[in-house]
Structure of PepSY domain-containing protein:
Amino acid sequence: MLTLKLNKDMFKPLIIIFLIASTSIAVGLPLPDWNSEEVIQVMQEEKLKIDADALPPRVRGAIAADSNLAGFSIAEAWQIPQVDGKYLYEVKFDDESEDSITIVYNHLGKVVKK
């Protein structure tokens, strides 16, 4: 038996995506790019602030391996749910000056957006 476990926070984005997809199919419009800025923006409304220690090992490994982040520390980290049940991780880095960098990683540690 196949069971589907949904988090209550996933319903709003799923409904929005269902409405977009069903309207596009009914009217004959092409489906949107699910990795587009608009979809990421909708999903960011559901993001959850997490401790840097809660980042997945692959994301932490990607951060440690990135020489461009030398001298930066993690100031904030956010977990952003995706329609496929996986998460993106938005990480804000600060250095000792007023400079900051925000990078979005997927669950495998790949940079999605700088």
